[in-house]
User: Fold this.
Amino acid sequence: MRDVVAELKAIVGAGYCLADAADREKYDFDITREYQGRSLAVVRPANAAEVSAVLRLANANKLPVVPLSGNTGLAGGGYVGEAGDSIILSLDRMNAIREINPKSRIAKVEAGVILANLHSAVDAHDLVFPLLFGARGSCMLGGNLATNAGGSNVVRYGNTRALCLGLEVVMPDGEIVNLMSALHKDNTGYDLKDLFIGSEGTLGVITAAVLKLFPKPKAYATAMVSVPSLAGALSLLHKIQAASGGGVEGFEYMPKNYFRHLQMIHPDAPMPFAEPAEIGILIEVAAVADRDAAPSPDGSIPVQNMLTETLAELMETGEVLDATIASNEAQRAEMWHQREIAFEVANHMGVPITTDIAVPLDKVATFLQMAGERLPAIAPKAELIEIGHLGDGNLHYSLWVDPENPAAADKAMQTAVYTMVEDVVQELGGSFSAEHGIGLSKLGTMARRKDKAALGVMRAIKSALDPNNIMNPGKLLP
Assistant:
């Protein structure tokens, strides 16, 4: 019998093939600690050639391969199973930013680059890579691409797929596919790049990418706003978009109960409103043009004046109840910090039942109403801890079924909640997975709700590209 571990060590070097249980532990467990597996080995290749050799070896032995980036996923996409035969392919050593081209506004990066490191690198060129969320200090670009990650800036820039021009991908048989085009137009057949983005490592391993960069905003206008209704929030979004010429970068939904739990774990956190807001909105507008960012003779900033004046007008009509506008960078950072610690807030009383849904913008309030009417029949003691990217219709509708008894959410209860949410989402023409991917946690939903013909096409693609089913098996496809 082949000594696969010895062969893996020969490919990547003995120090970069971790076979002992203690060395593998941080890779075998995911961030939620819900999915705890046991791998055969963790390999940390240095380049695409080594990734290719690892996959050829795995394919020849029909061993599962689980690609892993920052291990910050919330859907179980990095689970390795209990069999002890899976190879975890960690790309953390492939962390080079190969090129930043300010003239064409692109960056060529390896998959192991930490998102925050790319932010810092392009900032030196007065550019931004506008993918933004709380895990940016540890998540890696390969994982962002594999899950088509979203975040807070989608309302202006789109998901990760919209930010990528090209890829390098290693196929299950070890073939290296060069799709590293820096072109905005390349009409030469199937768009293979988009096939791999969002595939969660089930078709191949993304090892490098060409990413779009954008001008760094010269000024921000940021505010916490209390509105009387979600319909009013949508009207606010449209009015600020019109006034700013489409400059809204963040439009985040933070309801009253979120702030209540935020203050429970951070009692010194400054609250933005004189009276607790039933519906709080974090809004940020970015200015890239001098006419919007250059100080006026009185020292004020036009984009901030615009936001202040628009909110004042809406307060007079009752469309806005209260607002706190950040007057400096420290206040802006505090507002975003309160939004970005949502994972901590949502888990401080035990792991909640969490969903990641999207509905049309004008159906968010309808979703909350319909789900709120149906939930008591399933979990009469439930307490919501929802939050969302309201600007793109993405809600993280989460709840504790019994805040006084964290163990109350048994499997049957979870399934009942998920099924109810799925029903409402489907009735409203929405999606049961907006930005976190499918992984393991949503396989049941995928089987129940995904169009059957679409599933058939996906299975055919998987079978054609990965006939031995070695790439992250058991994920994404039910």
